[in-house]
Design a protein that fits this description.
With 137 residues, this protein is mostly helical. The protein folds into 2 domains: 9-66, Winged helix-like DNA-binding domain superfamily/Winged helix DNA-binding domain (Arc Repressor Mutant, subunit A, Orthogonal Bundle), CATH 1.10.10; 72-120, Winged helix-like DNA-binding domain superfamily/Winged helix DNA-binding domain (Arc Repressor Mutant, subunit A), CATH 1.10.10.10. It is 56% helix and 7% strand. It has 6 helices and 3 strands, in the order H-E-H-H-E-E-H-H-H. The chain has helices at residues 9-20, 30-37, 41-53, 68-90, 95-105, 111-120; strands spanning 28-29, 57-60, 63-66. The protein has a 3-stranded antiparallel beta sheet. The model has no long low-confidence stretch (mean pLDDT 91).
Length: 137
């Protein structure tokens, strides 16, 4: 595999789970990931191995954490999610629908397109949930 290769929806969900817990006191273990994602440990291990092959995840002494590349990808996914969700709410979708749609597309959208959307929206500071929109670059 290679750096920055495309990811699947499950890999996206794994990156987001790890990213949201990246500042916790203890790094994630496979069992933590399995529990938080509600998947079986062998499935979690398969996801971690795939993400490790793409240079997004590091495993050290049974602990799992995002690599620098993985952290950047997580931040990009988060930014994309919030900007796209903001756009969808602005154009009439409910917050729940916009969030669900964003979750299914945030890892597929090109960052240049999100930058354009962000500019067209007037560079909002927060998404409809009130979470800060932090540009990932």
């Amino acid at each position: 595999m290679y750096k920055n290769s495309p990811i699947t929806k499950k890999e996206r969900d794994c990156l987001v789970t790890l990213g949201k817990n990246r500042n916790s006191e203890f790094p994630f273990r496979l069992i933590d990931l399995s529990r938080d994602m509600d998947i079986k440990p062998p499935t979690a291990l398969n996801l971690i191995m795939r993400l490790e092959n793409k240079f997004y995840v590091l495993r050290e002494k049974g602990m799992i954490k995002l690599s620098e590349t993985g952290t950047k990808k997580f931040m990009e996914i988060e930014e994309t999610h919030r900007v796209f969700e903001t756009l969808m709410v602005k154009y009439g979708l409910s917050l729940d629908t916009a969030c669900a749609l964003s979750e299914n597309l945030d890892f597929l959208l090109k960052h240049e397109d999100i930058d354009r959307m962000f500019d067209l929206l007037g560079k909002p500071k927060k998404c409809p949930h009130g979470v800060d929109i932090v540009q990932s670059h």
